[in-house]
Amino acid sequence: xxxxxxxxxxxxxxxxxxxxxxxxxxxxxxxxxxxxxxxxxxxxxxxxxxxxxxxxxxxxxxxxxxxxxxxxxxxxxxxxxxxxxxxxxxxxxxxxxxxxxxxxxxxxxxxxxxxxxxxxxxxxxxxxxxxxxxxxxxxxxxxxxxxxxxxxxxxxxxxxxxxxxxxxxxxxxxxxxxxxxxxxxxxxxxxxxxxxxxxxxxxxxxxxxxxxxxxxxxx
Length: 219
What we know:
The model has no long low-confidence stretch (mean pLDDT 78). The protein is built from 6 helices and no strands. Helices cover 82% and strands 0% of the residues. The chain has helices spanning 3-33, 36-64, 76-106, 113-141, 147-176, 180-208.
């Protein structure tokens, strides 16, 4: 296992711990304050913690079976398989956001703006910290593709994106009265997340089935 993979493993563990800490706090306060916004965001962070946990387990397996005769071609595809699974989680998250956004457009519900903005700001702060932890690893990944780490990075980036879009929509909705903007921006965020998931899914499938790049047509 390379030095960079060890670094990615450590960074992933830090992000998991931050996510779990925030998730636990939001769910606990949500129950105590009867806040559905806090509860929803807490459980949403739980799904990302699960995906990040798969990433971390993959690094452990890669390290454990490195050099094993059971993996004569190496263990790197364990990480790619995990990234493939995470891309499905990411895609379903995006589709769920799109579904909820359309549902809210058709059947608007009252929005507790102050609570929702607070939750979105908490989520953004945590995700910004996680992105800072993972950023150096992501820069290295651009040159030496580690799809396992890339999947984890995309999950955090997707969460940060939805938080930013939510804050913009909620602030405008609160002060201008455009409540439908919350659902519209949610729909946009869902589309972008599905697009990221599709790209990651395509890349990981190509690696898993050893698909070669299509030859370029002669000019």
